[in-house]
Amino acid sequence: MNQEPTLPRKRLFVALMGLTCLLIVAIFYILWWVPTKGLANIHPELPGIIGLVTGALAGLALLGTLLLVLTTALGKDILLTRFMRGVVIKFLLPVIEFMGRVLGIQKDTIRQSFIAMNNSLVVSQKLKVKPDRVLILLPHCLQLFDCEIKVTGSISKCVRCGRCDIKGLAELAGKYQIDISVATGGTLARKVIVEKRPKLVVAVACERDLTSGIQDCYPLPVIGVLNNRPYGPCFNTNVDVAKIDAALQTVLA
Ligand code: SF4
Known about the structure:
single chain; 253 residues; alpha/beta; Rossmann fold; 4-stranded parallel sheet; 59% helix
């Protein structure tokens, strides 16, 4: 008597179970059938077509990898470097991050390698940009925590006391007459880029922020310089100003 109301649920469950079972059987059948029957028996042209497609895909992958290696090794824009940078950013990075996870390699190690690869590809493009179209983008944590001057609005407010690297960076921007901004986060950094419309960005940040910044900004070329974090993340960080100077010298017209 009490079984009646439960019947529809049972039927649904059984139906879904049957459907799942059929799907699994179909997959097993295809897995057995294709090699057993042979591609040629399905259609005489099929082995050739599939061979051509997989061969072309494998060739493209090999050629792309070779091109990437040669471009970074020689530091020359051999062919399609801008496009290759896009492939690295959009396609290779997620795959390599996944491979890294599988192999137990730390995420930051992969990101450091990616940033170096990206920088190498940007430099290989041999871009020459006028100083007024270059932007130096800095994270807020480079400023000394105790400093009472607010440099996020304008770095020119820094009185150059030398207790943090903002002094050296402000002087560097002055030397080359380059725009320089301090952003308190990724959203503000994106806003600064939209407003200033630079042709090239030299950005300082940690591995995570630089990686996402480079991804978000593509196709805008970004040279990433990692900050040092002697007191842990996001607090009184510093950067090698000479590295930024060197990066600027390679791209300034
Ligand atoms: S260098 Fe500039 S930002 Fe840094 S502590 Fe001195 S005044 Fe503040």
